[in-house]
């Protein structure tokens, strides 16, 4: 492709509203433009990258036995009401009415639609297993779209759905897709980790997220340095050593703690370690108030607690509820709190002579002892893990790093097939619900994540598999001989099946060099009057910055060799 004929509107300055590197560079390198908050137009250069990634996804899914189709983005509310998600999905679901007043939504995902299709078509166990996928735009009304396409309201996603006769079949389908995802992200040259994850609004049992490790990630990946254990912080567990404390139980007391509402302030004021503090957090349960307790050096893990209570979006109580509980915000504690259900983390039960809020302004209890001073309804792991804790599978230590979720696989089981009536007849003629899995990949999000992992101060540094062009040729000067040689090399490389961008614009050399670094093609060939006289081409590798002199007569074999060595 010739740059003089291609729409690549690069920018010198970074747009003010672009917060993260991928957002900045996708705008500056002319990959996309903003239409509205969280909604983007993909320009020719950006769409080439998207298509390259889509091709990799298709190849690996097809090898895994999945078949591509295309489902409607506009979905009738009746389907979502059958599954129970039309109201439960929350405000992210974009709802609308047609001219007849019928309710519809723009699909954030397609479990209902695919299940409706299969329930009307598949009748026998002989037609299973079945795995269907699509690549399509999805819509979610994010409360705060940000970070470019990392959190948008419209985005391109690959979603696949498997249908099996039993759990063993689901496990086989799940493993095939898990392996396909590993192949996809390995082929893209990305540093990633599959991690145990929460199923969220999709539901089901087991799930893994695929995380690209990058500083801009909104998620935290917890992984063991010595084994393969990895999990999202939402679900990560750690091994806690039982601590036997030889300390006599002291009498419960109330002390004055004026204007002290945080653990850090208590530690400084009382000279008592955070490990002896009992942090209390009030949540609204389904039909009761929940008091969650963790040790002072930990945070409550809302996802773990929500899963324990079977509540997808667990929320804190509102401020008005404190009066009804006869407690005070900032000074809540478990002693004599009243009619609440107390759930304590395992480590809280080991606290001896601890400190907790006294449910009165500017007052705390000291010498608090679980079970003696308050009763616990349930003990469970409801804490967030911390850096350096022990792995639950070995004696290795856990590390935490930011990650960008680019894909997720779920075991749905019969969550959708039962309410929607997707059944089949087994070999004995008995009707059974199909056992399902679903598998998503954020296409546009992966492109952004790749940039977050591959850039420098000058621009994008594309990995080989995702680069819009493998080679960019810069033509310097107005010499006809130079232009003709550049055109010859461009045509020859193109005829060899190599993606080439020819910068034949009538621009200054500095502009061309800056744009080349910004766009980030792996190999740059510079042709000018001086190099042509010397019978050599100037070749630069974008990733390493290495500069080479390549004889014109031997350039083709050497460029091919360089391409073969690219990551």
From TrEMBL:
Q: What is this protein called?
A: Proline--tRNA ligase
GO MF annotation: an example:
catalytic activity, acting on a protein
The Aminoacyl-transfer RNA synthetases class-II family profile domain is annotated at 33-463
Source organism (scientific name)? Orenia metallireducens
Similarity comment: family membership: Belongs to the class-II aminoacyl-tRNA synthetase family. ProS type 1 subfamily.
Q: Name one GO biological process term.
A: prolyl-tRNA aminoacylation
Catalysed reaction(s)? Answer: tRNA(Pro) + L-proline + ATP = L-prolyl-tRNA(Pro) + AMP + diphosphate
Q: What is known of its domains?
A: Consists of three domains: the N-terminal catalytic domain, the editing domain and the C-terminal anticodon-binding domain.
Residue intervals passing through the bilayer: none
EC number in record = 6.1.1.15
Q: What role is this protein assigned? A: Catalyzes the attachment of proline to tRNA(Pro) in a two-step reaction: proline is first activated by ATP to form Pro-AMP and then transferred to the acceptor end of tRNA(Pro). As ProRS can inadvertently accommodate and process non-cognate amino acids such as alanine and cysteine, to avoid such errors it has two additional distinct editing activities against alanine. One activity is designated as 'pretransfer' editing and involves the tRNA(Pro)-independent hydrolysis of activated Ala-AMP.
The protein's UniProt keywords, in alphabetical order, are: Aminoacyl-tRNA synthetase, ATP-binding, Cytoplasm, Ligase, Nucleotide-binding, Protein biosynthesis
Q: Tell me, how does this one assemble? A: Homodimer.
Matching SUPFAM superfamilies: Class II aaRS ABD-related, Class II aaRS and biotin synthetases, YbaK/ProRS associated domain
A cellular component term from Gene Ontology for this protein is: cytosol
- Please classify the protein's predominant subcellular localization into one broad category: cytoplasm
| Entry's localization field | Cytoplasm
């Amino acid at each position: 492709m010739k740059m003089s004929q291609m729409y690549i509107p690069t920018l010198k300055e970074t747009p003010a509203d672009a917060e993260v590197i991928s957002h900045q560079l996708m705008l500056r390198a002319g990959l996309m433009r903003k239409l509205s908050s969280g909604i983007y137009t993909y320009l020719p250069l950006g769409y080439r990258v998207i298509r390259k990634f889509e091709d990799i996804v298709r190849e690996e899914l097809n090898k895994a036995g999945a078949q591509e189709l295309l489902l409607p983005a506009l979905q009738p509310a009746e389907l979502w009401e059958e599954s129970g998600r039309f109201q439960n999905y929350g405000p992210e679901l974009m709802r609308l009415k047609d001219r007849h007043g019928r309710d519809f939504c723009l699909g954030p995902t397609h479990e209902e639609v695919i299940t409706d299709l299969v329930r009307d078509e598949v009748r026998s166990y002989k037609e299973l297993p079945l795995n269907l996928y699509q690549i399509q735009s999805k819509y979610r009304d994010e409360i705060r779209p940000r970070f470019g396409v990392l959190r948008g309201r419209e985005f391109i996603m690959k979603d696949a759905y498997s249908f099996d006769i039993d759990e063993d079949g689901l496990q086989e389908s799940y493993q095939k897709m898990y392996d396909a995802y590993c192949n996809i992200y390995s082929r893209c040259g990305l540093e990633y980790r599959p991690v145990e994850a929460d199923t969220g609004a999709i539901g089901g049992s087991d799930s893994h997220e695929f995380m690209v490790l990058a500083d801009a990630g909104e998620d935290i990946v917890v992984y063991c340095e010595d084994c393969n254990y990895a999990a999202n912080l939402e679900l990560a567990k750690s091994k806690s050593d039982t601590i036997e404390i030889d300390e006599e139980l002291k009498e419960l007391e109330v002390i004055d703690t004026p204007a002290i509402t945080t653990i850090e302030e208590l530690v400084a004021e009382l000279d008592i370690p955070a490990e002896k503090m009992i942090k209390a957090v009030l949540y609204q349960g389904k039909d009761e108030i929940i008091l969650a307790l963790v040790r002072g050096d930990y945070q409550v893990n809302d996802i773990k607690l929500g899963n324990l209570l079977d509540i997808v979006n667990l929320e804190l109580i509102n401020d008005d509820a404190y009066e009804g509980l006869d407690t005070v915000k900032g000074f809540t504690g478990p002693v004599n709190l009243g009619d609440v259900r107390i759930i304590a983390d395992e480590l809280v039960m080991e606290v001896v002579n601890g400190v907790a809020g006294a449910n009165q302004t500017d007052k705390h209890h000291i010498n608090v002892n679980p079970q003696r001073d308050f009763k616990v309804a349930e003990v469970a792991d409801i804490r967030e893990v911390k850096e350096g804790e022990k792995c639950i599978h070995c004696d290795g230590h856990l590390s935490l790093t930011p990650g960008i979720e680019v894909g997720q696989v779920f075991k749905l089981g019969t969550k959708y097939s039962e309410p929607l009536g997707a059944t089949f007849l087994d070999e004995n003629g008995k009707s059974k619900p199909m056992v399902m899995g679903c598998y998503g990949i954020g296409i546009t999000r992966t492109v952004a994540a790749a940039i977050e992992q591959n850039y420098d101060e000058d621009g994008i540094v594309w990995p080989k598999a995702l680069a819009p062009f493998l080679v960019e040729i810069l033509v310097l000067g107005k010499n006809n001989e130079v232009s003709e040689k550049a055109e010859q090399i461009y045509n020859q490389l193109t005829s060899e099946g190599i993606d080439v961008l020819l910068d034949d614009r009538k621009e200054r050399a500095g502009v061309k060099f800056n744009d080349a670094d910004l766009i980030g093609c792996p190999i740059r060939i510079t042709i000018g009057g001086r190099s042509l006289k010397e019978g050599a081409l100037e070749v630069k590798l974008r990733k390493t910055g290495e500069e080479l002199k390549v004889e014109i007569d031997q350039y083709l074999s050497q460029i091919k060799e360089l391409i073969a060595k690219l990551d």
